[in-house]
Amino acid sequence: MRLTRYFLPVLREVPAEAQITSHKLMLRAGMIKQAVSGIYSWMPLGLKVLQNIEGIVIEEQERAGHLPLLMPTIQPASLWQKSGRYDDYGEEMLRIRDRHNRDLLYGPTNEELITEIFSSHVKSYRDLPLTLFHIQWKFRDEMRPRFGVMRGREFLMKDGYNFDITMDDAIHSYNRHLVSYLKTYERLGLKAIPMRADTGPIGGNYSHEFLVLADTGESEVFFDKRILDFNFGIANVNFDDIGECQKIVDEWTAPYARTDETHDPEAFDRVVPKEFQGVSRAIEVGQIFYFGTKYSKPMGAHVTDSEGKQVPVHMGSHGIGVSRLVGAIIEAFHDDKGIKWPISVAPFKVGIVNTVMGDQETCEVCEKIYSELTTTNFSPLYDDREERAGSKFTTMELIGIPWRITVGPRGLKKGIVELTDRHSGESREIPTDNIVSLIKELT
Ligand code: ATP
Ligand code: MG
């Protein structure tokens, strides 16, 4: 992409309405634009990051054997009346009436709709286990939308639902979800800590939240500091191995606790010795639930078991805050100059800065590097504007491009270009002929 052909509405000033770093940087880098409180348009740069996150989430879901589908944003109220949640959900639910006076709602989550799909089509234990997921916009009329995409009213969520014949099977589904989520966050560059949690309006009896430590997080968490040295290196987990998944869950979730949850308020006190007790703010980037037959019973999601009896299926649900993750990743990776994207989600992996647009050789070398990287799918961003080099550097740093290639007449006389690592800030001189192959190795 050539910057002169791109739509990158960066802001010079820090917008007054933004309180936290990620919100400020997303506005300054031209990633989002508020339409109305808690509802945003995603500009091209922001959309690229959102889609990169989605891509990783989808890959890891499919690797774990979960099947994608797509449910609508608008749902009939009648389904929620059946489950009993239509009244329970309260003012967070956006209720709509159509021209025929039918009550609809903009889905805050999809347990009811998926249960209905399931019960219409699945009748036998032979078709289980089954896990379906989608990535779809949700609406919750949050009392205080704030912090940009972190607490929006409209937000993008990956939500998945598992159907199992027994509780044991459903717990295995739960465990494999926990493991696949750890893998997902790891690929996004994040250390997300699984912590036991309350189930809230989703209901049920077993739940973990995934929390990224950050000063600007809305949750207060209490944890065993040794978790921070844990290496979640789970590249080769066999998801079908019940024992292996259970072992990971036991090892990685046992020592951590939150005191604001009800099931075991003393757990934190058992972290011995005291020097390992950590307290921090954190961002919730996902949550998983096992809730048994809470929806399958009232909504008639029964199947025949191996003895021919009709039994309600055991279910769980699992959510990842896809749009919130964009903010969470920025909270984790930035400095005073701007964003520092992990390579896996970066909107462009390489930036090319032409320091003297008037110099013919500089332009030729930039064009050559640009076209070689473009044809091999490295999607570089080429800053070909008639601007000072300093202001080009500032833009690349603000929008967080992991690698920057600087091309100018002085370097070219020596046969070199400069390669700068956004994460470490270090620059080195690279022979012009080697730069493309080096980039391919690094990204
Ligand atoms: P929170 O406690 O932050 O309000 P929640 O527990 O109500 O979230 P879940 O029902 O667990 O949310 O939804 C799954 C995920 O969706 C959350 O872990 C979070 O990452 C994301 N999410 C929830 N609400 C919002 C929101 N208003 N804006 C952006 N993301 C959200
Ligand atoms: Mg939650």
Features:
alpha+beta; Rossmann fold; elongated; binds adenosine-5'-triphosphate; BirA Bifunctional Protein, domain 2; 22 strands; eight-stranded mixed beta sheet; five-stranded mixed beta sheet; 443 residues; binds magnesium ion
Give a quick rundown of the structure:
The chain is of the alpha+beta class. The chain has twelve helices and 22 strands. Strand 21 (about 415-420) and strand 22 (about 425-430) form a beta hairpin.
Give a verbal description of the structure.
Helix 2 crosses helix 8. Strands 3, 7, 8, 9, 10, 11, 12 and 15 form an eight-stranded mixed β-sheet that branches. The chain has a five-stranded mixed β-sheet with strand order 19-18-20-21-22, with helices on both faces. With 443 residues, it is of the alpha+beta class. The mean pLDDT is 92. It is built from twelve helices and 22 strands. Helix content is 30%, strand content 27%. The protein has two domains: 330 residues, BirA Bifunctional Protein, domain 2 (2-Layer Sandwich); 93 residues, Anticodon-binding domain (Rossmann fold, 3-Layer(aba) Sandwich). Bound molecules: adenosine-5'-triphosphate and magnesium ion (MG). The site of adenosine-5'-triphosphate has 17 residues, from strand 8, strand 12, strand 15 and helix 8.
